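Blinded run. Sample ID left blank on purpose so nobody reads anything into the name before looking at the predicted structure. Input follows.
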Amino acid sequence: MMHPADLDIAAAAAALRDGTLTSVALVQASLDRIAARDPEIGAFVYLAAEDALRAAAATDAALAAGHDLGSLHGIPCAVKDVFDVAGWPVRFGCGHFRERVAEHSSEAVVACIAAGAIPLGLVATYELATVGPDRTSLYPQPRNPWRRDHVTGGSSSGSAAAIASGMVRFALGSDTGGSARSPAAYCGVTGFKPTAERIGKAGLMPLAPSMDQVGILASSAQDAAQVFGALTGDSDETPMAGARVAYGRNWGEGDAPVILSLLDDAAAALSLAGARITVADLPDYPSIEQAGADILLSEQVQSHWHVVEKDEAHVGKMAYASLNSGIGISPETLAKARAIAAAFTDEIDALMSTQDALIIPTTMTTAPLFSDFDTGGPVWTEMRTIPFNLSGHPALSVPIGFSDGLPLAMQIVGARGADALVLKIGAAFEAATDHSAQRPYLA
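Blinded prediction complete.
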C-alpha cells in the first residue's frame, strides 16, 4: 500500500472525499516523514505539528459536514521562511530577525489556507533570499536529498529539499532570479514561477520588488497545477496535441554538453506527445543576465541595506557581500539594464505571438558541492532563469534526467497569462517520461 505522503494531490483529495483517508492521518504521515528524514536533510526550521493536527481535525469535520474548500482541502504543505504566517517565527534566515514573530499571514498563505491546505511549518531560505549556502547565516542550509554533500540551490532551498525528501507534496517559495526554479532543478522536483503579479505578494519579504514573484514548488507539474488553480482559479482546457513549442537550443550550448543532449531528448519526447517543435534562435544571454543582476542587486540594496546599517554583526558574510555589491550600481547602468530588459520582453512577446511555449535549460549543471563554498564567498552557477523575472512570463522547471546521479531540468516558458497552458504542457511531458517519478533513496 502506498504511503499516504506519497499520494499526489489529486489522489489524496479523492481518498479524503471517499473516506479512505483522513486529513489527520495525512498530516500525521507527513509529520512522521519529517521526524524520520529531516534530521538528515535539514529542510524545516520551524515545525507547528500541534497546530497542523488541530487544523486537520477541523478540515475533517468540515468535510463530514459537507463543507468542501476545494482541491487543497486537507493537504499538508510547507512555507518558505520569507512568507509571514501569523504567530510563527518568520526570520528570513537572518540573525537580525532572530526574535521576530509575524503578526499577520501573507496573502499567499491566506489563499492556501482558504483553499483548505494545512501548513506544517517553515522551511529554510538563503539569508534574506540573497545567496548561500552560508555557514554564518542564522541556520544551516539543507542538504541535497540526492547526495548529501551537494547543495540544494536557493533561495527556496528548504522548499525543494522537503519535496524531494517526500515530506510534503508542495511548498510555497519565492522567485526573484530563479529562486524557485533552480533549487527545484537541483533537487529533481517541479518549480513554477507564475506570470508576474498573478499571485499576491503582500506579506512576502521584498527583495527586488520589480522581479519578486510567489513561486510554487511541487512533486510534479500536475501537483503544481492543482495548487496554482486552487490559488487563482485558473485552468486550461486546450488540448496538448498540436501545441507550438519553440526550442531555444542556443541557450543550452556551453561547457556542459550533457544538458544539451538531455534537452534534445526532451524536445523529442514533447514531439512524440503531439507538440510541434521549432528551433528558435534566442538573443544573447550574457547581456540579459547582466541586466537582471544589475536590477536585482540595485533593488535589494533598497530593500535590505538598512538591516546591515542597524545590525551588521547579525548579517551573514554572503548576504552582506551580496548587498554591498549593489551599492555601486550607477543610475546610468540601471537605466541601461532596464532598457535591455524591456527589449528582451518585447522579443519574447513577439515569439509568443506565434508559439505556445518555449523550452530552454533551467540550470546548465547539476548542484554544486558544499565544499565549493568553503572560501566563504558566493559561487557563480550558470542558470537560464533570471530573464523571465525581468519579462514577467510564466516559467516552469521540470526534471529531464541525470548527470552522474544528480538531476537536471528544463524550463517551459509561456505567454504572459498562459500559466495553465504551461503547466499542462509540463504535465504532458511528465506523462510521456518518467523523470518526475524518480526520487532519491531515503531510509
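Unblinding after everyone has recorded impressions. The mean pLDDT is 96.
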